[in-house]
Write a structure and sequence with these properties.
Helices cover 12% and strands 29% of the residues. Strands 2-1-4-5-3 form a 5-stranded antiparallel beta sheet, with helices on one face. The radius of gyration is 15 Å and the shape is globular. The protein has 1 helix and 5 strands; from the N terminus they run βββαββ. By secondary structure, it is α+β, with helices and mostly antiparallel strands.
Length: 115
Amino acid sequence: GIALDGLQAYARIVDNPQITPDGLIRYHCAVRDPGLPDPLPPPLTRYVAQAGRYATLRHRGPYREVFPAYFAISPVWMHKHGERFGLSPALERYESPPWKHAGGEQSITVMINLR
């Protein structure tokens, strides 16, 4: 019952892509709330991203190539700058909905929560 056109798509990453094999990483698919009623109709649930500091990196290309962006942020950039992982999951923000670009080029901002 929700029109998909114009929604800002996100993914909440449950697993660490450096530890979990690509095909086994769990995601929670999400969209920015366009003013949905409260309570939400099943099976939808509300998630509020934790406010705080995030390291971000833009990835442009096929989704199958997004995981090097995580590597560039986590062990490389974070170690160099003395940063540590925060407690909330990483997020991916899609510049246009992934259901319109399955298998093709995408622009994704990877966001990792910092302490």
